[in-house]
Structures are given as C-alpha cells and as structure tokens.
Amino acid sequence: MRGTARGLLELTRPGNAIASGLLTVIGSFVAGIAGGEAGLLLPVPPEFRVAAAVCATVLAVGGGNAINDYFDREIDRINAPDRPIPRGAVSPRGALAFSLALFVLAVALALTLPALAIAIAVVNLVALVAYTELFKGLPGVGNLIVAYLGGSTFLFGGAAVGGDLSTVGVLFALAALSTFAREVVKDVEDVAGDREEGLHTLPIAVGERRALVAAAAALGLAVLASPLPFVVGTFGVVYLVLVLPADAVMCYAAYESFGDATAGQSRLKYGMFLAMASFVVGRGFAVV
Ligand SMILES: CC(C)=CCC/C(C)=C/CC/C(C)=C/CC/C(C)=C/COC[C@H](O)COP(=O)(O)O
Ligand SMILES: CC(C)=CCC/C(C)=C/CC/C(C)=C/CC/C(C)=C/COP(=O)(O)OP(=O)(O)O
Ligand SMILES: [Mg+2]
Q1: Which fold has domain 2-287?
Q2: pLDDT by residue (tens digit) across 264-288?
Q3: Measured at the alpha carbon of residue 152, what is the angle toward residues 230 and 275, in degrees to the nearest 5?
Q4: Member of which family (predicted)?
C-alpha cells in the first residue's frame, strides 16, 4: 500500500508540478495581483484566485504526467522501466483513475477564476489528455504542445488576477522556447523506444543531429531574448545579473546534448530552474 501511495506521488512528478505552481504565482505577481473582476462567475477575491490558480496548476500538471505514464505504459518498459507503472507499483487503471481525479479537482478550482483563465485551463486540459496519443508522435508537434503548456502557466497566473499580460507574454515566450529545446533533446534520448513504438518524433523524422541543431536554435533565441523582462518589462537589474549564469548553464547544456542527450536534458532542466529563480528574485528586487 505504501508502495502504491509512493507510486501515485511519483506519477505526478511532484518537482515539476510544484515548479509549475511557482511559475503561476510569478505570472500573477508580474501581471499585478490587484487585478480586475471582469469575467468572474463568483465574486472571489484576487488572493484566493492566486491560491486557486496555483493549486489548479499543480493538480493539472500532476494529472497530465500521470495520464502520460498511463498512455506510455508499454513504451516505458524500454524508455523508462523504473517509472511506477512498468515497475508494478501502480496499475494502469489506477494511474488513469488517479489522473482523472486530479483533473476534476483542477477544473473545480479553475471555475473560481475569470473567463480567460478558465479558457486557458480548458485548452490545457484537452492538450494534456490528447498529447501522448495524438501529438507526441508527430515531428515537433508534441514538443510545441509541451512548450506551450509550460509557458502558459505564466499566462494562467496573470489571467487569474485579471492583470496586465504584456511582461507575462515575454516570460511565456522564454519558457516555451527553452522547454521546446529540452523536449527535443528528451526525444533524442528516447529514440530507441519511440522507434520501436512507431512514433515519428523530430529526431526520428529528420535525424538526431538536425533535431539537436533545432533545439540549440530555440534555446539560443530564448537566451538572446532573456534580457527583455528588464529592457521592456518590469524586472530590475538584479534579474539581469542572475539570469546570465542561468543562460550560461543552458547554453552549455545545449552543447553537451550533442555528445550525451541524457546529461544535456538534465542540465538544461537545472538551468531552467535557475532561470525561474532569477524571475522570482529579480522581480522581487524590482518591487522593493
Ligand atoms: C532563457 C530563459 C530565461 C528561459 C526561461 C526558463 C524557464 C523559467 C522555464 C520554465 C520551465 C519550468 C521550470 C517548468 C516547470 C516544470 C515543467 C512543466 C516541465 C515540463 O515537463 C515535461 C517534461 O517532459 C517532463 O519530463 P521530466 O522533467 O524529465 O520528468
Ligand atoms: C495551467 C494549467 C491548467 C495547466 C498547466 C499545464 C502544464 C504546465 C503542463 C506541463 C507539461 C506537462 C506536465 C506535460 C505532461 C505530459 C508530459 C510531456 C510528460 C513528460 O513525459 P515523459 O515521459 O518524460 O516524456 P514523453 O512522454 O513526452 O516522451
Ligand atoms: Mg512519457
């Protein structure tokens, strides 16, 4: 039983779910927490809406990850044998029921938010459910969807408080470009299992080297655009100082991916978390 509970928690990829919740908080603060009441079904105060949006994000990401592992249960015998379903900690039916329960809770919380936030939540939930079966096997399409999903957390947080989405839009682009790069590197890592399953991911369709060049180009664009929250947005100079080391880690990771995709995608994630920290601290210093 304890094994099952641990397996269920692992299915949600709690680190990613919590990080996504943090991106939502950042979106709310950057957009302006005192934002408007337009399009609300219920008269919910903005502070409660931030909490509801964060919890909806954490639950939706947890559900999205669990349903991905449900659909990937065969392929993960090759690509990820230690995941909870292939190692027997959780049954496929249990994983599916768990993910649906998380989605229902996420929708219930999203209904307390303005219309734009509800629309983002609905689009994201459809994308999360459809991703593995419909889009993951089309070259680049699945990667673009996960990139959109990662970036959309900022928009969701901003929309939850009815705030100004201009700087939030820049954060969306940075997160989406860097997530696209990492997803392509992850596909290079997974080529063996994906090929056996008949998927046409980007590296299978165009070759590993070209796919890695596309990933490096997307990451390069993100790094070049990373000063924008300072230049055209509301971020202070502390942000600029902190984002530079994050940029350096991500550039090195993209280079490393050409020799070792597993090490590259893992370092890329570390760089993205550093960038996320620079958003939090840099934005905080702009306020005081
Ligand atoms: C250049 C620049 C400043 C970029 C910004 C980078 C930034 C802040 C990116 C946000 C990405 C982030 C921390 C996302 C949270 C976690 C998340 C939603 C990850 C996506 O997960 C999908 C992935 O395929 C799951 O795999 P794994 O992580 O290997 O378990
Ligand atoms: C704001 C709201 C309502 C939702 C947020 C939605 C977000 C941020 C989702 C993040 C991306 C996510 C969790 C995608 C889930 C599916 C996925 C790509 C899981 C990764 O699975 P792996 O098994 O590592 O990779 P592949 O299955 O793609 O090969
Ligand atoms: Mg998977």
Answers
A1: Tetracycline Repressor; domain 2 (1.10.357)
A2: 999 999 999 999 999 999 877 665 4
A3: 40
A4: Belongs to the UbiA prenyltransferase family. DGGGP synthase subfamily.
